[in-house]
Amino acid sequence: MSLPPDFGVPPALAATPAAASDYAYCTDLVRAQDRDRFLAALFAPADKRQDLFALYAFNVEVARVREVVREALPGEVRLQWWRELIEGHGRGEVGGHPVASALLGTIGRYSLPRGALLNLIEARVFDLYDDPMPSMNDLEGYAGETASALLQLSAHILGGGPRPALANACGHGGVAIALAGLMRALPVHAARGQCFLPLDVLKRHGSSRDEVVARKPTPGILATLADLRTQAARHLMEAEKALAGLDPALAPAFLTLALVPGDLKALERLKDPFARVGGLSALRRQWTLWRASARTR
Prior knowledge:
- This is Phytoene synthase.
- One of its GO terms (molecular function) is transferase activity, transferring alkyl or aryl (other than methyl) groups.
- InterPro entries: Isoprenoid_synthase_dom_sf, Squ/phyt_synthse.
- This protein folds into 2 domains: 7-128, no CATH class; 130-297, Orthogonal Bundle (Farnesyl Diphosphate Synthase), CATH 1.10.600.10.
- The protein has 16 helices and no strands.
- The protein has helices spanning 11-14, 17-33, 35-41, 46-63, 65-68, 72-87, 98-110, 114-124, 136-159, 167-184, 186-191, 199-204, 209-213, 219-242, 260-269, 282-296.
- α14 (219-242) packs antiparallel against α15.
């Protein structure tokens, strides 16, 4: 997919090569690591894309800490660095970190709520350990601090300020996106000992964390995944209701919601949810986002 002809940074930033290179780095990182949000952001106005990419690159950085460290303690140190940066204690240390530099620029430009970013980091501490997700309520809370927060912050950037009226849409939408994403990534998480399937639902179906990390497609795990798909569909329906009449200028923040129905259908067809990462194919994802964007226009 080629970039739109107006893709780039606004003149004020283009005049500062270092700033332009920081945002370019974020763009490349999101393109490589978070393809869905990368494609969705391309439908945003040119002068907003760089800031969306800075936000999404920050999310990539904190979400992949588990992948780049072997033990929890170094991961905690990395997350603490990000906390201190956002709290304003690390400004002098960002010269060699393009994502940090770009994020600080975006925070300042839009007065992004730092509390939401700090809560996102705090939620990611869970990723560093092999403790199972205790309950469905905990899982929805995790989704709220991560995927829902990204929706809210994206809408903030696109709207030029906070959009409290979208809190309900962001809350439900983020849970739908997160549940679908976690079910798609089940083989990856289970292989490294993580269990995002909530224990209370597993127990209700006679299953356990041990079965998840053993990667056994038992009837209990399949029933648990069916329950999660139902929950994701319910949250998606509530999000769509809350988004009725949405300002088209804010629509790119919510485009990835369009992927959830197809992902849920594809996941339902999997006989072995541990065999491969599920969901729509890459080409189908791109086409679905394009079609959803066309509808909003």
